[in-house]
Amino acid sequence: DGGITQSPKYLFRKEGQNVTLSCEQNLNHDAMYWYRQDPGQGLRLIYYSQIVNDFQKGDIAEGYSVSREKKESFPLTVTSAQKNPTAFYLCASSKLADSYEQYFGPGTRLTVT
Amino acid sequence: DAKTTQPNSMESNEEEPVHLPCNHSTISGTDYIHWYRQLPSQGPEYVIHGLTSNVNNRMASLAIAEDRKSSTLILHRATLRDAAVYYCILRDNNNDMRFGAGTRLTVKP
Question: For the segment B3-53, what is each residue's pLDDT rounded down to a tens digit?
Fold first, then answer.
């Protein structure tokens, strides 16, 4: 089945540790995105990538880093510089950057204590 | 950036139509209106989108005001599985999508 997978579903880390969230898609989509969602709020864009080896900052990129070495993979690293990392993280992809539909993964809920 | 305003919550009875409103008074001429919905603990899913004309698909209908300053998502017969948070989003020339808090739809049996 084609789709987007994120792993793990739940992740727990101690404060001060970097953590990498996985996002893989087998839809052959060019564009991929990372969003953050806090309780009761909408999604905010962290980073996006329109093509392999290229990515741009979204609205809240500080404290995060990404890479896009392969078309199907777009991992997100939450660094220790991110002041409030506990959140629900959602990865999405679209066929092209200007495609009207984004496909979302199931999300990773990160808790940092 | 143009923003959208939606009610925080709405209720509907099962098998009745639901009209979810969205105001976007600062919409620009090239902004597309998108609707996504998010079920609990899941990622959002695309529902429908439009520019000027009303749109229909298998999930819903989108009615866009003539001045484009508001739109309404219409679910023709709500089911319990339609209970979700519905987001009205404007997509600009940069293809950025900015999600607000959305409308939480509760469907009562």
Answer: 899 999 999 999 999 999 999 999 988 889 999 999 988 899 999 999 999
Q: Is the pLDDT score of B95 beyond 80?
A: no
Lowest mean pLDDT among A56-60, B73-77, B94-98: B94-98
Q: Does B101 touch chain A (CB under 8 A)?
A: yes
H or E stretch at B75: strand B70-75
Give the Cα separation of A80 and A29 in Å (integer): 30
CB atoms within 10 A of CB A1: 3
Which pair of tokens denotes residue A16?
């001060």
Sequence-ordered list of residues with C-beta below 8 angstroms from that of B69, at least 6 positions apart, any chain: B23, B24, B25, B27
Residues 6+ apart with CB under 8 A from A37: A43, A44, A87, A88, A89, A90, A107
| Cβ within 8 Å, pair A45-B42 | no
CB distance A91 to A4 below 8 Å: yes
The per-residue pLDDT for range B50-61, each reduced to its tens digit, is 999 999 999 999
Using CA atoms, how far apart are residues A29 and A48, in angstroms rounded to an integer?
13
Nearest by CB to A43, from B32, B49, B99: name it.
B99
Compute the distance between CA of residue A18 and CA of residue A24 in angstroms, rounded to an integer: 20
Q: Is A10 on the interface with B (CB under 8 A)?
A: no
Tens digits of per-residue pLDDT, A42-52? 899 999 999 99
